[in-house]
């Protein structure tokens, strides 16, 4: 019986190739789009979930309240984890991690490579995290402070097929490390990634060897380290966070920090303050995948019911020859299954063709191979859902036809069924409108970000790091660069202005309340920095380069506001235990994503403690060539790396830009499938009303009047869909925009554009079939007694 149904299904599909083709194409597009989106979602949700104790691993975050505004950092002082383990029984283990992503030369014999992904980690790193150590002792991965663990890829580069353990690697022609372990390459779905691991104890040694005024283990003011805790499964993260807060308060007078613990499995999708930055995108993409799949299923239902008049006599004949309703339902569900399988096959072909482009848009490395269990499970699940959702209703409707009415040509589809089909079209276009509105809002926010004043000039400014003997001849570097006529300004600093990494709570000022400290970003600059970046001083003056500048400081407006300092110029501000005089106030500027509010920043003058060059130019290509030539003069072994500030700005919003492009692609797919569904309903309605159309034409109705008659109801459906979509999309996108401290609004222009696009596309879709019906010969339909 089953094989018989399959043969009938193929016979039916080949008999009506156009409708079968439209059905397969619509379902295939919907399935391909939804599976690709769900693969992206699955990859995002998989981050850091491969650790055996992953549910008990937490990152310690430091929280501060600045004038009522909460600020959260994922880095902490060095001692908080080790002191916490000593005093809190619920903490089973601690791992501190300090990223060192400066360019490093790895040398072994004649082989030499550069890499930028090194990290210092505590010796319990492999006890807490499940990164497979292929060679070495996971209990003691660093026998000495001069030991190192390399990834497989890095070891292969340096040693080829040689045994790497015990080999010596020289870093930057300075330090020598002995390879004590080889770890498998870090997975792409890990928030912790590195090419080389060094012992954290080495950092402690360097701290003390450089004669800092504090040791790393007693410095509670510098928040430079990621601290991971492995907790007892019975422990409460909130309680441990409060206990850590108490430990810090005892160790540092006036500390205004509150510690919270964030699950390792949340780090990729949630901001450190708990906001659903990535998770919200996951939810949006999940809903988009379901919406597109639903649109495709609705499209199939409408096209199937549009063909019901043609299938009615077949149903009538089968019923009169003894077929019961169960057998008919089984037959039509088999048809749906065959069509769904064909659609999945075509969808898989579409995914194979588009996956390189999709990976480029999404920034992923996804694959759609059949041997990939994730692809198989997702595609199989989508196939079953599509088959059941799209096949059941048409099968039920078609099997319900009464033989006597069918044979006599008196088939009448009930008004309830017609209403249901119209409701499906409304749902289709409402979902499509929501996706389009979301796409436009994301685009508007990106436009707002790109055109918003950052408070400094990022155009035609590039940076590169100092290296080698450049540190000994900074003014010589400046003079050499300025000999190029295309270079207008050259400045030096110890931070990247667009991602200031340093932070400290070790500050003081006149009138400070001991209980109201806050974290500040210190940045060392030279006397030309403000001019080069066009940073505006709203009070006071800038640095002059004189020796007196060593006792001067310039604050941004947020620092002055948070500290409650009135008339700041001339007052004292203590930074790093050094009392300085405030000589100026710089206008607030964005030194991170506009998702975050502008944070306190303090500039101090330095001529020696700098390692980043800022070059402003009128001819970028020429200036970069000049800088590269100068770099090679001092650093022949190191590759020359530079970054344009406007390109760094674009990277900062890469995820939003990808989201916009993906939304554009999937909104086009959604509206195309919806138009196919509308085409099906128009076809159905035209066939049902062909007798009415013929009579009206005989009585003198014009083609325009008939087109208006048939289109009016559908335009009403589209308007209803838009009215339903507007508030839903406004609410969803308003919540998305709330993730940005600075954002545009959900403008009425978005709804106008969406309404015009949806109505125009719907009208174009309808016009083909409606005009065709209006131009048909009335004699043919009246002769057939339709």
UniProtKB/TrEMBL annotation:
Span of domain MacB-like periplasmic core: 21-245, 436-630
Any idea which UniProt keywords this protein has?
Cell membrane, Membrane, Transmembrane, Transmembrane helix
Membrane topology note:
Multi-pass membrane protein
Q: Name one GO cellular component term.
A: plasma membrane
Task: Extract the GO molecular function terms from the UniProt entry.
Answer: transmembrane transporter activity
- A matching Pfam family: MacB_PCD
Q: Where found, per UniProt?
A: Cell membrane
**Classification via PANTHER family:** ABC-TYPE MACROLIDE FAMILY EXPORT SYSTEM PERMEASE COMPONENT 2 (PTHR30572:SF18), MEMBRANE COMPONENT OF TRANSPORTER-RELATED (PTHR30572)
State the name under which the record lists this protein: ABC transporter permease
